Amino acid sequence: MNRKQKRIDKWLVGILTLAVALNFMNIWEDEYVNPYYTSAVKSMMQNLHNFFFASFDPAGFVTVDKPPVAFWIQTISAKIFGFHGWSVILPQALAGVGSVILLYVMIKKIFGVAAGRIAALTMAITPIVPAVSRTNNIDSLLVFTLLVATWMLFKAVAMKKHRWLFLAFVLIGVGFNMKMMQAYMVLPAFYLFYWLAAKIDWKKKIGLLSGATVLLIVVSLSWATIVDLIPEDKRPYIGSSETNSVLELALGYNGISRLTGEMSSGGSNGQNEQPIPPSGNMQDEPPLANEELQAGENTADSSDNENQQNSNLDSGQDLNFKNAPGGQFPPQMDGDNNGPGGGNTGRFNTGTPGVFRLIQDGLADQISWFLPLAIVSIIGLLSGVRLKETLSTKVLHTIFWLAWLVPVALFFSIAGFFHQYYLIMLAPPIAAVIGAGLPVLWKTYRKNEGWKSWLLPIGIALTAGLQVSIMLPDKETIGLTFILVVGIIGIILALALAVIKQRSAINTYMMTAALIVLVIGPLYWAMTPILYGGNSMLPEAGPTSSKDGQLPQIDDMAFPGDEQDVSMNNDNQVGTNEAPNDEKSPTNREKRNDGPGMNGQVNQSLLTFLEKNRNGTKYLFATLDSTTAAPYIIETGEAVMTMGGFSGADSILTVTKLEELVESGDVHYFLIGNRGMGGNAEIISWIQENGTEVSAEEWRENEDNQQVGPGGGASKLYYVDMEGEE
Fold first, then answer.
1. CA–CA separation, 295 vs 630, rounded Å?
2. Angle between the 504-532 and 10-24 helix axes, to the nearest 10 degrees?
3. Distance (Å, rounded) from C-alpha 693 to C-alpha 689?
């Protein structure tokens, strides 16, 4: 028996092999990943000051818009393995595989080996999981941290050791220092499970949970409190905050504003977060926030102005709208446009808030492939439970995963602003309840236990139907025949299971075939970042369609800055799942020299000019937003001042302060456009009035190219010296 228990689970080995392939394959081809965060790692590697504050730039001028813990891990990885795209991705890829292992361990212990395997496989092939884990966005690290906390919580109850409870809440606090309020989404499950499962009196439960909560708050706010107590002139500006405060950033931009969607650009004096970022790109969070505009095209030079119009929205891969009237998002981005198949894609392709949001275009193909089966599994797991009776261990664990699933699903159903890749928070509970529930559904089906015996075929049929609806918008890419075959076979097998009962051999084969069919779609979607290239700024999974509806070859795909006409025009409407502008094209496949953009591009002519003429200034040059600055920081390790933070909307500088920086010789060159974001218009005007424009032929590779630059309009390079010396 002991030998059998120690035997390696070959099914788990296969699942982990698949997970490793999905999370690791070709990550070495992504040179700069998400430039916004990669720049921070480059800066944090230079000194402890930048490391502690998670400074975006080497001079410690402004921080990124998230706490530092995840970036500490990425920086340590880059220190060990060298600064590469894959070395900053490595922690997230390991976390993605680690989450699969943790689910297997936790579900197997309570529900059995088969349940553990199913949960692990479901987690591994949920498309958004590998899509996020293949980037340096920090959500997969957060999920792994929360799963470790979950393991500790279960251990606290099983072993009756209170220290595990405290450690679990401490880890959630660590998660807060990765992505702030998002870590707290699991707290209802933690409180409810311990209250129901701990075998101690209620007074002691209150005391222990209160103590754990105090630890949670202390750990959560430790870094924020320290930073906010440091004089502002001794630390970087807190990027995307309105008051240069970490606590305000946590509660506002990274907190309540996510739910309400009423976000103002960091430091923009309360200005509604609808305007276009200075570079002409739409930024991360509704205000154009940091975490996601990151992709940009505010460079000094580019091969094609039209190509730049297609660069990215938000963090990096949605569309941008340089010519949007009044600086407002197009109507389609506000959730009113109908996507393919009749679904509303909504702002940032996240659908229209409501009960059915998670099965709308843009979200369903990232997370909801098995959602009907998960719901049916929950019914099967909780059927027959009587509240007056002592709840079994299996029921208590089911309640935990349900208490994780429901609040998070509710948030994403009503939230005003989030990105598709945040949906990775739903992957663990969905995988867990399917893993735990599917064997139960099979057992009740085999025993023909009345109405419960219908749950399995109903779950398979509904899941097959949803998967067909998910794939239909991409029928021109993957083929209508393929979609119909998968759907028809799945539904036929479900009907056959409903009709042909108590024939064990036949039913087993049909059940196996049905599960294989249901795995095909999500597995293919999970592979798409490998097959077609991923989006490191706004990770998502899904096939990429070419204009003629044919599946594009990797080498034929368009990239920002390529000599292909992928510009937005009147015939290409924004907000659909079609790809007229190739907004889903892979990024970071090669470094180009025609300007900085999503690919971490550097204008070599500009760089050569600045290095020759900077005369020892602290900053190589100054620009309005991080999209322009990031490639130069990554390439050179030199300080580039982002006067308006990530999107150009942070009110970091006053004219007086900027004048002091110029007088002290810290900065002389400014790469800007015609206007400022937020409260920075006066700064742009001051530079234009007091500076001398550098002739384009001295720094542009092609003087005829008039790319839209930081602040709007054609990019221009200014030299400012308060003594009037050029």
1. 9
2. 20
3. 10
CA 170 to chain CA centroid, nearest Å: 24
Alpha-carbon span 401 to 381, nearest angstrom: 12
- State the helix-helix crossing angle for 139-159 and 187-197, rounded to 10 degrees: 10
Structure tokens, 134: 């293949």
- Write the burial class of residue 176 (CB in 10 Å: 0-12 exposed, 13-18 middle, 19+ buried): buried
First CA to last CA distance, the chain: 83
Return d(Cα 512, Cα 519) in angstroms, integer: 11
List CB contacts of 427: < 8 A, sequence separation 6 or more.
99, 123, 126, 128, 129, 143, 367
Reported as a single tens digit per residue, the pLDDT across 10-21 is 999 999 999 999
Closest CA to 111 of 391, 505, 392: 392
Would strands 692-693 and 716-719 be described as parallel, antiparallel, or unpaired?
A: antiparallel
One DSSP character per residue, 595-638 reads: --STT----HHHHHHHHHH-TT-SSSEEESSHHHHHHHHHHH--
Residue where the block lists tokens 């659908």: 351
The bridge status of strand 640-642 relative to strand 669-672 is: unpaired
Structure tokens at 384: 């027959």
Q: What are phi and psi of 272, to 5 degrees?
A: -60, 140
Residue written as token pair 């742009």: 684
> In whole angstroms, what is the distance from residue 529 CA to residue 533 CA?
5
pLDDT digits (tens, 9 = 90+) for 254-310: 888 888 876 554 444 333 333 333 333 333 333 344 444 433 333 344 333 333 333
Cβ atoms of 296 and 289 closer than 8 Å: no
Q: How far apart are CA 500 and CA 661, in angstroms?
A: 80
Please report how many Cα atoms fall inside a 13 Å half-sphere around the Cα of residue 206, on the Cβ side.
3
Alpha-carbon gap, residue 312 to 280, rounded angstroms:
9
Contact residues for 76 (Cβ-Cβ < 8 A; gap 6+) = none
H helix runs in 34-161, sequence order: 35-44, 48-53, 69-81, 85-111, 113-125, 128-133, 139-159
Show Cβ contacts of residue 319 under 8 Å, excluding neighbours closer than 6 positions.
282, 310, 312, 313, 568, 574, 581, 583
Judged by DSSP in three states, 200 sits in: coil
Question: How far apart (Å, rounded) are the C-alpha atoms in residues 305 and 310?
Answer: 9
Please say whether the beta carbons of 339 and 577 come within 8 A: yes
Nearest to 194 by CA among 148, 167, 156: 156
- Structure confidence by residue, pLDDT tens digits, 451-485: 999 999 999 999 999 999 999 999 988 999 999 99
What predicted TM-score, i.e. pTM, was given to this entire model?
Answer: 0.84
The one-letter amino acid at 593:
N
Query: 579 with 544: CB under 8 angstroms?
Result: yes
Q: Is 628 exposed, middle or buried (0-12, 13-18, 19+ CB in 10 A)?
A: buried
Spatial CA neighbour of 18 closest among 124, 103, 118 = 124
